[in-house]
Specification:
The chain has about 240 residues and is α/β, with parallel strands linked by helices. Helices cover about 45% and strands about 15% of the residues. It is built from eight helices and five strands; from the N terminus they run αααβββαβαβααα. It has helices at about 20-35, 40-45, 55-75, 120-130, 150-155, 170-185, 190-210, 225-235; strands at about 85-95, 95-105, 110-115, 140, 160-165. α1 crosses α8 (about 225-235). It comes from Candidatus Protofrankia californiensis. Keywords: DNA recombination, DNA-binding, Transposition.
Length: about 240
């Protein structure tokens, strides 16, 4: 009996089942991650051309599609440099202060971000373990004088030169201000996961704008971000 050839399954778009077209969903996510807007602000902007989208729906779009867009862009990302600056900044989640651990390289590429309830050795281990696979292992690490850094670096990066001199980390501290400006209109974060998603998404946008992805490279630099999100829409 002759067997029929088995056809490979057709990939299902991540946008399947959504009422709005992919272009509208990604545009809303792009605006929210890029600009200092609340979900209600984006809701009002979409209403101007007649697109009625509830702000709760917007929240669900950001939570679902931000990780998918970042994963789709991963093959286009430049390898981070070998000199890292690491620091934590604090934000409020449900009335409690939590810490955003962040690392940037010497070219201002945001390497990774981690939202944690504590500023201790387990959090430092978790952050470095997640950040190190993004590229080459750094030969130099600049941090503040937090007690958690020396032990974590001795365990995970014993060969790296560790710098913790006073005010050696001003570049990343300045970079924190851009993230804080993005978080300010949100009127208080409710969940740790939301802090993680929005912070990682904002870093993703910053990296595209700074030229750390091979996305939107053939367009006007002012339109690079829009072009990048259009390219990524076609891949997910």
């Amino acid at each position: 009996m002759r067997q029929r050839a088995v056809r490979p399954p057709v990939p299902v778009s991540e946008f399947a089942g959504f009422r709005f077209p992919p272009e509208v969903i990604v545009l809303a996510v792009h605006w929210y991650l890029h600009y200092a807007l609340s979900y209600r602000d984006v809701e009002e902007l979409l209403a101007e051309p007649g697109l009625v989208v509830d702000h709760v729906t917007m929240y669900r779009w950001v939570r679902r599609f931000t990780p998918l867009l970042i994963d789709a862009a991963r093959p286009c990302r430049h390898t981070p440099g070998d000199r890292w600056l690491v620091d934590e900044t604090s934000v409020k989640v449900s009335g409690r202060w939590i810490y955003l651990w962040r690392a940037v390289d010497q070219d201002s590429q945001v390497i990774d971000m981690f939202a944690a309830e504590h500023r201790d050795l387990p959090a430092a281990r978790w952050f470095f373990t997640a950040a190190l696979p993004h590229g080459r292992r750094p030969v130099e690490m600049t941090t503040d004088k937090a007690a958690s850094y020396p032990r974590a670096l001795d365990e995970l990066l014993p060969a790296a030169h560790h710098i913790d001199a006073w005010r050696a980390n001003t570049r990343i501290e300045s970079d924190h201000s851009q993230l804080k400006a993005r978080l300010r209109p949100m009127r208080g974060l409710k969940r740790l996961r939301s802090a993680q998603t929005v912070s990682v998404g904002h870093a993703f946008v910053q990296n595209i704008r700074r030229g750390h992805y091979e996305l939107g490279v053939d367009t006007d630099p002012r339109l690079r971000l829009s072009a990048a999100f259009t390219e990524l829409t076609l891949t997910i």
